[in-house]
């Protein structure tokens, strides 16, 4: 009877130990997999923010640090472009334009929402969500967190250049994951790689051509 009981206890201990070993191996695997999936979603949205900022700069010559202003621009603004009516090698077409006293350049307008994201089409509802970091509500108990965004000017060769940055710290979208692994990730980015511990595009202290820290 005692031998049987001992065998049962040993079997249970072995199962528990096996599970603990499996979990110790899989925990960082699950952390990395979830981190990469969430990071990809954050990068996709921060690229949309960059596209909107570039469109805003094309119209106003500067960037904005306000999401209200940026979102309103995308939803309501018109952007003016120019196009050539005929090729410069088309002598017949050029002669016709000259006869009509028309220039070979035509101006036209396009809604910002239809052009700033290129081939990608966003709905007004999706544009309203630009300010929020993906998975931040999941990571922070249901409360979404906004990207940290700002705009400024820096001097480059005695010329003032407009710059902007938008960033999402890892804590904003990974806080619900393994605490120690998150601490390790942030420490590695800050102290080993000298990188921003999160996803970031642009910079307020230097002109970077709006580069992202994942690029």
Care to describe what's here?
By secondary structure, the chain is α+β, with helices and mostly antiparallel strands. It contains eight helices and five strands, in the order ααβαβαααββααβ. The strands form two sheets. A three-stranded antiparallel beta sheet has the order 3-4-5. Strand 3 and strand 4 (159-169) form a beta hairpin.
Which residue ranges are poorly predicted, with pLDDT under 50 across at least 5 consecutive positions?
none
Shape: elongated
- The count of β-strands is 5
Strand content: 15-25%
Query: How many DSSP H or I helices?
Result: 8
Helical coverage, percent range = 40-55%
List the strand order in the largest sheet.
3-4-5
Radius of gyration: 27 Å
Which series of helices and strands comes N to C?
HHEHEHHHEEHHE
Main beta-sheet annotation: 3 strands, antiparallel
Tell me, rounded to a whole number, the average pLDDT.
88
Euclidean distance between termini CA atoms: 66 Å
Class from helix and strand fractions: alpha+beta
Please describe the topology of this protein.
Blueprint: H1 2-60, H2 67-76, E1 78-84, H3 91-99, E2 105-111, H4 112-115, H5 124-128, H6 136-139, E3 148-156, E4 159-169, H7 170-174, H8 179-192, E5 198-202
Antiparallel strand pairs: 1-2, 3-4, 4-5
Helix pairs in contact: 1-2
């Amino acid at each position: 009877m005692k031998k049987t009981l001992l065998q049962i206890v040993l079997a249970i201990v072995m199962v528990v130990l096996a599970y603990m070993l499996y979990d110790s191996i899989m925990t960082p695997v699950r952390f990395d997999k979830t981190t990469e999936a969430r990071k990809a979603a954050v990068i996709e949205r921060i690229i949309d923010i960059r596209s909107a900022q570039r469109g805003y700069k094309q119209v106003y010559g500067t960037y904005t640090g306000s999401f209200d202003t940026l979102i309103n621009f995308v939803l309501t603004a018109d952007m003016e472009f120019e196009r050539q009516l005929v090729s410069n090698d088309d002598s017949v077409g050029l002669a016709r334009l000259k006869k009509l006293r028309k220039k070979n350049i035509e101006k036209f307008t396009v809604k910002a929402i239809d052009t700033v994201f290129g081939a990608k089409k966003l709905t007004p509802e999706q544009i309203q969500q630009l300010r929020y970091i993906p998975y931040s509500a999941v990571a922070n108990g249901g409360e979404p967190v906004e990207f940290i965004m700002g705009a400024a000017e820096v001097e480059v060769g005695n010329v003032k250049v407009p710059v902007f940055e938008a960033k999402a710290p890892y804590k904003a979208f990974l806080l619900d994951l393994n605490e120690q692994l998150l601490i390790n990730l942030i420490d590695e980015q800050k102290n080993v790689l000298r990188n921003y511990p999160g996803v970031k595009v642009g910079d307020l202290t230097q002109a970077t051509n709006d580069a992202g820290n994942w690029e």
